[in-house]
Amino acid sequence: MNAATLTLAEAQRDVRVAHAGGGTGMVVSGLLWLGCGVVAISAGPRAAMLANFFGGMFIFPVALLVERLLGRRGLLSQGNPLGDLARESAFMMVVCIPLAFVAAMVRPELFFPAMLVLVGAHYWPFATLYGMRLYWALGAVMIGAGFLLAWAGASVATGAFAGGAIELAFAPFAYAALRRELAPVAA
User: pTM for this one?
Assistant: First the structure.
């Protein structure tokens, strides 16, 4: 693809096709959240927070590996200008994650609600990146859940399990949207 001639719709389709509509990333991230819930129960809040932090560094590489194993290229076409938006969104997460650790210094059970808000806000630019309104909904649900869990004083494990459940619940919709888009048109 030539960046000079790529329309926004073409660039978004390239992102959807390369990354399976984002569903693979949601599954990998959702499984990490669930794993953090198990770690919170078995090894405590601090271990769960560290598992989330360090595990989060591997979400994209693991999703990329899975996408390639499933026959997707996993990378955007050279010259796709939306690659910059993807990198900016990822950098925003890196810059904001320390806020969740600061919240946890006040009350450990605030870490995962804070992460829900941060990850939810991180997903909103994906609506433009993928050209899918699904990401506005996913972001809103995660942000709402984060505030609700913080207000309710939910346990560390509950916050982690909630994040996993939300992402895993949305992933099939991302896959289904891509499947519909790629389905051959009946003549």
Answer: 0.92
Structural domain span for residue 168: 8-72+82-177
Tally of domains within the chain: 1
pLDDT in tens, 27-58: 999 999 999 999 999 999 999 999 999 999 99
Q: What is the 3-state secondary structure (H, E, C) of the chain?
A: CCCCCCCHHHHHHHHHHHCHHHHHHHHHHHHHHHHHHHHHHHHCHHHHHHHHHHHHCCHHHHHHHHHHHCCCCCCCCCCCCHHHHHHHHHHHHHHHHHHHHHHHHHCHHHHHHHHHHHHHHHHCCHHHHHCCCHHHHHHHHHHHHHHHHHHHCCCHHHHHHHHHHHHHHHHHHHHHHHHHHHCCCCC
Q: Is 185 a member of any domain? A: no
| Exposure string over 148-186, b if 16+ CB within 10 A, otherwise e | ebbeeebbbbbbbbbbbebbbebbebbbebbeeeeeeee
